Amino acid sequence: MPDTIQRRLAVGPGAPSEARKLVSGIPLGDQARANLELIVSELVTNTVRHGSEPVGGELSVALRRDGERVSGEVCGRGPAFTWAAHDPDLEEPGGLGLMIVDRISDRWGIRRNTKVCVWFECEDCAPD
Protein backbone atom coordinates (compact mmCIF):
# COMPACT_ATOMS: atom_id res chain seq x y z
CA MET A 1 0.00 0.00 0.00
CA PRO A 2 1.47 3.39 -0.93
CA ASP A 3 2.23 6.11 1.59
CA THR A 4 0.65 9.38 0.43
CA ILE A 5 0.74 12.85 1.95
CA GLN A 6 -1.11 15.85 0.53
CA ARG A 7 -1.11 19.24 2.21
CA ARG A 8 -1.84 22.87 1.50
CA LEU A 9 0.73 25.25 2.93
CA ALA A 10 0.59 28.98 3.43
CA VAL A 11 2.80 30.89 1.01
CA GLY A 12 5.51 32.65 2.97
CA PRO A 13 9.03 32.29 4.33
CA GLY A 14 8.09 29.33 6.56
CA ALA A 15 6.68 27.20 3.71
CA PRO A 16 9.95 25.39 2.80
CA SER A 17 10.46 24.34 6.42
CA GLU A 18 6.86 23.13 6.70
CA ALA A 19 7.29 21.15 3.47
CA ARG A 20 10.44 19.45 4.81
CA LYS A 21 8.45 18.35 7.89
CA LEU A 22 5.99 16.55 5.60
CA VAL A 23 8.79 14.25 4.45
CA SER A 24 9.05 12.86 7.99
CA GLY A 25 5.67 11.18 7.46
CA ILE A 26 7.09 8.86 4.80
CA PRO A 27 9.23 5.89 5.90
CA LEU A 28 12.66 6.45 4.34
CA GLY A 29 16.32 5.83 5.04
CA ASP A 30 18.60 8.73 6.00
CA GLN A 31 20.03 9.47 2.55
CA ALA A 32 16.64 9.04 0.89
CA ARG A 33 15.11 11.47 3.39
CA ALA A 34 17.85 14.04 2.76
CA ASN A 35 17.33 13.79 -1.01
CA LEU A 36 13.56 14.12 -0.75
CA GLU A 37 13.77 17.02 1.73
CA LEU A 38 16.10 18.86 -0.65
CA ILE A 39 13.86 18.34 -3.69
CA VAL A 40 10.70 19.39 -1.84
CA SER A 41 12.38 22.37 -0.21
CA GLU A 42 13.73 23.66 -3.53
CA LEU A 43 10.37 23.30 -5.29
CA VAL A 44 8.46 25.04 -2.49
CA THR A 45 11.06 27.82 -2.33
CA ASN A 46 10.66 28.39 -6.08
CA THR A 47 6.87 28.49 -5.73
CA VAL A 48 7.10 31.05 -2.93
CA ARG A 49 9.70 33.23 -4.71
CA HIS A 50 8.42 33.10 -8.28
CA GLY A 51 4.71 32.37 -7.91
CA SER A 52 1.96 34.96 -8.08
CA GLU A 53 0.15 33.82 -4.93
CA PRO A 54 0.46 36.51 -2.23
CA VAL A 55 1.94 35.79 1.19
CA GLY A 56 -0.74 33.96 3.14
CA GLY A 57 -2.16 32.37 -0.02
CA GLU A 58 -1.80 28.65 -0.60
CA LEU A 59 0.41 26.21 -2.43
CA SER A 60 0.05 22.43 -2.42
CA VAL A 61 2.51 19.62 -1.83
CA ALA A 62 1.78 15.97 -2.65
CA LEU A 63 4.21 13.13 -1.88
CA ARG A 64 3.80 9.43 -2.57
CA ARG A 65 5.97 6.43 -1.85
CA ASP A 66 4.96 3.32 -3.73
CA GLY A 67 7.38 0.47 -3.23
CA GLU A 68 10.82 1.63 -4.30
CA ARG A 69 9.69 4.90 -5.90
CA VAL A 70 8.94 8.29 -4.39
CA SER A 71 7.06 10.83 -6.46
CA GLY A 72 5.57 14.19 -5.75
CA GLU A 73 4.54 17.58 -6.98
CA VAL A 74 4.39 21.13 -5.77
CA CYS A 75 1.70 23.39 -7.23
CA GLY A 76 1.01 27.10 -6.98
CA ARG A 77 -0.22 30.04 -8.96
CA GLY A 78 2.31 31.65 -11.19
CA PRO A 79 3.45 32.17 -14.74
CA ALA A 80 4.08 29.16 -16.91
CA PHE A 81 7.77 28.62 -17.48
CA THR A 82 10.27 26.33 -19.10
CA TRP A 83 13.67 25.36 -17.83
CA ALA A 84 16.84 24.51 -19.68
CA ALA A 85 19.99 22.98 -18.24
CA HIS A 86 22.64 25.66 -17.80
CA ASP A 87 25.92 26.38 -16.06
CA PRO A 88 24.92 28.67 -13.21
CA ASP A 89 27.12 31.43 -11.87
CA LEU A 90 28.15 29.90 -8.56
CA GLU A 91 29.29 33.31 -7.33
CA GLU A 92 25.69 34.58 -7.47
CA PRO A 93 22.99 33.49 -5.00
CA GLY A 94 19.99 31.54 -6.28
CA GLY A 95 19.29 29.92 -9.58
CA LEU A 96 20.17 26.38 -8.49
CA GLY A 97 16.76 25.01 -7.40
CA LEU A 98 15.65 23.25 -10.56
CA MET A 99 19.20 22.19 -11.34
CA ILE A 100 19.25 20.39 -7.98
CA VAL A 101 15.89 18.74 -8.75
CA ASP A 102 17.24 17.74 -12.18
CA ARG A 103 20.34 16.15 -10.67
CA ILE A 104 18.68 14.26 -7.79
CA SER A 105 15.43 13.08 -9.37
CA ASP A 106 15.17 10.47 -12.11
CA ARG A 107 12.41 12.32 -13.96
CA TRP A 108 10.69 15.63 -13.46
CA GLY A 109 8.68 18.13 -15.40
CA ILE A 110 6.40 21.13 -15.42
CA ARG A 111 2.70 21.07 -16.16
CA ARG A 112 0.16 23.81 -16.26
CA ASN A 113 -3.56 23.55 -15.75
CA THR A 114 -5.20 26.02 -13.38
CA LYS A 115 -1.89 26.18 -11.52
CA VAL A 116 1.76 25.56 -12.33
CA CYS A 117 2.94 22.21 -10.95
CA VAL A 118 6.45 20.81 -10.89
CA TRP A 119 6.41 17.03 -10.49
CA PHE A 120 9.22 14.56 -9.86
CA GLU A 121 9.97 10.86 -9.55
CA CYS A 122 12.92 9.56 -7.64
CA GLU A 123 14.16 6.00 -7.43
CA ASP A 124 17.17 7.04 -5.32
CA CYS A 125 14.82 8.58 -2.78
CA ALA A 126 13.44 5.12 -1.96
CA PRO A 127 14.43 3.38 1.28
CA ASP A 128 18.14 2.72 1.75
Question: What does this entry look like structurally?
Answer:
The protein is of the alpha+beta class. Helix content is 30%, strand content 30%. The protein has three helices and five strands; from the N terminus they run βααββαββ. It has a five-stranded antiparallel beta sheet, covered by helices on one side. Strand 4 and strand 5 (116-122) form a beta hairpin. The two termini are 18 Å apart. The model has no long low-confidence stretch (mean pLDDT 84).
Name the features.
alpha+beta; five-stranded antiparallel β-sheet; 128 residues; 30% strand
How would you summarize this macromolecular structure in one to three sentences?
The mean pLDDT is 84. This protein has helices spanning 15-23, 30-50, 97-104, and strands spanning 3-10, 58-66, 69-76, 107-112, 116-122.
Secondary structure blueprint with pairings:
Elements: E1 3-10, H1 15-23, H2 30-50, E2 58-66, E3 69-76, H3 97-104, E4 107-112, E5 116-122
Antiparallel strand pairs: 1-2, 2-3, 3-5, 4-5
Unreliable residue stretches: none
Please, how many helices? 3
Order of helices and strands: EHHEEHEE
Distance between the termini: 18 Å
Q: Return the structural class.
A: alpha+beta
What does the oligomeric state look like here? single chain
Shape: globular
Lateral strand order in the biggest sheet: 1-2-3-5-4
What average pLDDT do the residues reach? 84
Strand-residue fraction?
A: 25-35%
Number of strands: 5
* Percent in helix: 25-40%
